[in-house]
Amino acid sequence: MGKQIGVVTNYFKQVKAAAIKLSSPLKIGDKIEIKGGKKDVVFIVESMQINRQPIKEAKAGEEVGIIVPEDIHKDYRVFKVS
Q1: Which ranges constitute the DSSP H helices of the chain?
Q2: Looking at the predicted structure, is the pLDDT value of residue 26 above 70?
């Protein structure tokens, strides 16, 4: 497990997208792990948006939307994996 970089603030099941409030920067191509409940989801960030606008990187303090390969829930923790 890497460094915690954020927390899931919302999950939109119909489009499999998570809103994540970042405490550290995140960019396209980063490998992340979302942990919570009985589930750990590890994947590479392939797309990211702020206010429905595609972006390549985000700074600490921003809230981003990303597509997630599995269902998750609010308050799951997000880690950057090396």
Answers
A1: none
A2: yes
In angstroms, rounded to a whole number, what is the distance separating the alpha carbons of residues 22 and 60? 5
Q: 32-51 burial string, b = 16+ CB within 10 Å, else e?
A: bbbebeeeebeeebeebeee
Does this model's pTM top 0.85? My answer is: yes
Domains of the chain: 3-81 (2.40.30.10)
First to last CA, the chain: 9
CA distances from 43 to 31, 46, 51, 79 (A): 6, 9, 22, 11
